[in-house]
Amino acid sequence: QRIRLAAQLGSNLQGVCYVLDEPTIGLHPRDNQVLLNALQNLSDKGNTLVVVEHDEDTIRRADHIIDIGPGAGKRGGTLVAQGTVRDVMQTEGSQTGRYLLHAMLHPLQMRRPVDEAAATEVPPAEPRALSALEGISKSVSASLKKNKAKLQPAPVQETPVQTWLTVNNATLHNLHDVTAAVPLSRLVAVTGVSGSGKSTLARDVLLANVQMGVAKRSTRAGRDALDAGEKIHWTGCQSVTGFEGIDRVLEVDQTPIGKTPRSCPATYIGFWDVIRKLFADTLEARARGYAANRFSFNTGDGRCPSCEGQGIRTVAMSFLPDVKVLCETCRGTRFNPETLAVTWRGKNIGDILQMEVDEAVDFFAAMPNIGHPLQLLKDVGLGYLTLGQPSPTLSGGEAQRIKLVTELSKVRDDITRRGQKPPHTLYVLDEPTVGLHMADVEKLIRVLHRLVDGGHSVVVIEHDLDVIAEADWVIDLGPDGGDAGGRVVAAATPEDVVKLGTHTGVALADVLARQA
């Protein structure tokens, strides 16, 4: 999209309407300013730009804002506000206006301490004034000095961390002999300008090698081999140390949670089996001889024979794309009439599938096995989804949050098993805020904190300043992209990154200086 935009900048066209869908995705705040200046140039030439965007800087630079809402899904689709930034901020009921008017204050909770003396030493970056060509104006440089003076140390918990996961001498792609230390049981942000090597370090080196090491130690034969002196063949680095205390490694990405309409949030998270058993235990089901498998829409005699439990039918249109229509037999309920005759608290199994999460939280409040994951879905901002919403209709951000809820529900399960130490999981997330509104970003941050509070380690590759400001530790790569990047320019708390004056520190200064 940005390459096409660059081509348009070179042409002197006028009177063109450009439509851009989230052009700031994957951009560092420094690069954001460069992009916004380019868009302004197109506008100044006499063109119209319609931009779908969640980025605060882009919204504030817009001449006219159209805010759709007030909620998501069935609760959205109406015009909440339109006009200038001031108009939107003064509109009651606009979540966008509320977050523009009252930005998030950091930190949301006490910062977890990091024993910096135990970290691999990184040469401090030389603070320098960034030029306007790099996307930093003179006014921003002036405000940086003012905000550094405002900066207060964040409140910190008492016990420092002692365990570190260290990547030694990474040279993959554009990494220049990078050694980076990640504090475990902490929220860690990997930052840097676009192309600086963040994904290479966090995913291709850290994630891949820790997965290899944990897999090796998970078997008795592997542990014996390591104890006997066998070396692991590391990828893209000299070695990785400190992974021995990690039991699981998981990348939580935005890939779909299922490819067929039979997959839905209830089946993916796992509480659908509990609901099926609930219906099977009713007097009506017992009288009819129905077991739990009767209430499955994937197999068995209970599902609708016409659509085979999908709730929709696909109509082949020969030379045109196939059309999906509501099943005429079951009207989207997925089950046959005999199965739907069984009810629990006045609802049949089809009604449960079509129930929104917000309604289901109250409906199943007395049943923790079902109510807890439902409450988690509500907490991450997915209260508008239906329990049986087909997975292919979910966005990448929705799919990612459902995966996080699945993991959070496991945290509770681990804690409730007395006498067992919960497995320590390393979660790696690559830009989880992509496509998220500011209100959803705050909910995501709280979910990440809950994972860390549950005893796990979270590494987030991120450009979003609100997420970076909440991190316990920041690994900032740079100083620029491509060959000019691939080095650790800062490894410190967010406040110390600001003091170092890196590109990320410059952008972070305003966010940390916010006051109520």
What's the end-to-end separation, in Å? 38 Å
Q: What low-confidence regions span 5 or more consecutive residues with pLDDT below 50? A: 120-137
Estimate the helix proportion, in percent. 25-40%
Query: Quick one: CATH superfamily of the largest domain?
Result: P-loop containing nucleotide triphosphate hydrolases
Supply the CATH architecture of the largest domain. Answer: 3-Layer(aba) Sandwich
**Global geometry:** globular
Provide the spatial order of strands within the biggest beta sheet: 9-14-15-7-16-17
Tell me how many strands there are.
Answer: 17
According to CATH, the fold-level topology of the largest domain is Rossmann fold
Structural class: alpha/beta
Number of helices: 20
Strand content: 15-25%
Give me the Rg, rounded. Answer: 26 Å
* Number of domain modules: 3
CATH class of the largest domain: Alpha Beta
Draw up the topology in text:
Elements: H1 2-10, E1 17-21, H2 29-44, E2 48-52, H3 56-61, E3 65-69, E4 78-83, H4 85-89, H5 95-101, H6 138-150, E5 164-170, E6 178-183, E7 187-192, H7 198-217, H8 220-227, E8 239-241, E9 248-251, H9 265-269, H10 272-280, H11 283-288, E10 312-317, E11 320-326, H12 337-340, E12 343-344, E13 347-348, H13 349-353, H14 357-363, H15 368-379, H16 396-416, E14 425-430, H17 438-453, E15 457-461, H18 465-470, E16 473-478, E17 487-492, H19 494-500, H20 503-512
Parallel strand pairs: 1-2, 7-15, 7-16, 9-14, 14-15
Antiparallel strand pairs: 3-4, 5-6, 5-8, 10-11, 12-13, 16-17
